[in-house]
Amino acid sequence: MSVVDKVRELVAPLLAAEGLELFDVEFGGGRLAVLADRAGRADHGDPATGVDLEALTRATHAINAALDREDPIPGGRYILEVSSPGLERRLRTPAHFRAFVGSEVAVKTVPTAEGDRRVQGRLEAADDAAITVAGRRIPYADIDRAHTVFVWGPAPRPAKHTTKQKAAR
Fold it and tell me: I want to staple 125 with a disulfide (CB 3.0 to 4.6 A). Which of 17, 57, 76, 132 is the partner?
């Protein structure tokens, strides 16, 4: 079992006890990142309903104690970071993509993939083999990086013409 799998198994119940759910675990370069979100969140990125600092603090203490007790990381030298996945979330697993069907995403494909390397648009579908973004089906093996794109609200209204602009016409 990999370090990430061991940590995932260890921290998921600890987060659940705080009303949070595990979004992802990243390990590399001496950094262990545990990304948590409010349990059962259906809004996918509304900052007003996300995880709060107190919940993350409690989760950090519980996770730190469990990691010290269980010692799942060889060598034991790492920096623990417990945080929210943020507004623009990195998508790596089929479950991540399925959860964000209907959302705006940006995808960068591997150099050997057919078509443009960068695709942005609505995530139309996600199954166990591939995703569909803006009408293009992309197998998971062809995805280098992907993340949600936070949309900041409606487009600005067009400016009204001033009297001088109207007179110049």
Answer: 132
What residues have CB less than 8 Å from 20, skipping those under 6 apart? 36, 37, 38, 39, 51, 55, 59
Q: What is the mean pLDDT of residues 63-81?
A: 89
Interior angle at CA 149, CA 147 and CA 155, nearest 5: 170
Residues 71 and 28 in one domain: yes
Is 89 among the domain residues? no
Tell me whether residue 166 is in a domain. Answer: no
CB 28 within 8 A of CB 77: no
Residue 36 scores a pLDDT above 70: yes
153 domain-assigned = no
Q: How confident is the model at residue 110 (pLDDT cuts 50, 70, 90)?
A: very high
Q: Which residues make beta-bridge pairs with 145? A: 108
| Other CB atoms within 10 A of residue 136 CB | 16
Same domain, 79 and 14: yes
Number of domains in the chain: 2
C-alpha 127: how far from its chain's center? 18
| Of the residues 62, 83, 104, the one at which a domain ends | 83
